[in-house]
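Q: Predict the assembly, please.
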Amino acid sequence: GENVEQHPSTLSVQEGDSAVIKCTYSDSASNYFPWYKQELGKGPQLIIDIRSNVGEKKDQRIAVTLNKTAKHFSLHITETQPEDSAVYFCAASIKVGRRALTFGSGTRLQVQP
Amino acid sequence: NAGVTQTPKFRVLKTGQSMTLLCAQDMNHEYMYWYRQDPGMGLRLIHYSVGEGTTAKGEVPDGYNVSRLKKQNFLLGLESAAPSQTSVYFCASSTGGGFSYEQYFGPGTRLTVT
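A: Predicted assembly structure:
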């Protein structure tokens, strides 16, 4: 089955700096790669996603890049703010069948004011 | 529109006791999922359903059962709780159709088994 590895497990940045979180996946059939943000005591919430036919996607301060050949994808957050502090999860999914997500182990991002 | 709701929010069980976690969604989604979240391990799929009356096993199904008698509800049962089932449980739903992949998550149920 699919295996998703995520790094780093913790990341501390100064407000205004950029943050980058990286993930690799194992199954070449995976074609959907979402990123979720989880705040304390809440369920994960989708912040951005990318499909395998796209190399990069941007939404205001966040962007995701995908390298299908190398089987890795990354989340980029620019101009970080204290409210960006949370746990971020990458995930991968195959289009057919159950479409369940295989998650990475998470990155705890702390933005220091 | 409440989205995905879960009950209860917290529960403490003794080893061997049973309980049912309820997930409800009001978005008319076909697909529903149960995940468990443990420290440092992300979320892992327990069981899922691709429509009313259907269920299937995920990656970590042992010790759990599920039912989807109504499209909007997905129940997760623990027949004989064990300390290894101490976790936070999340339910999610998605449309399951076309090119839509997004999963919507509930707020979670924190379960402690002593």
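The mean pLDDT of chain A is 93. The longest strand of chain A covers residues 19-25.
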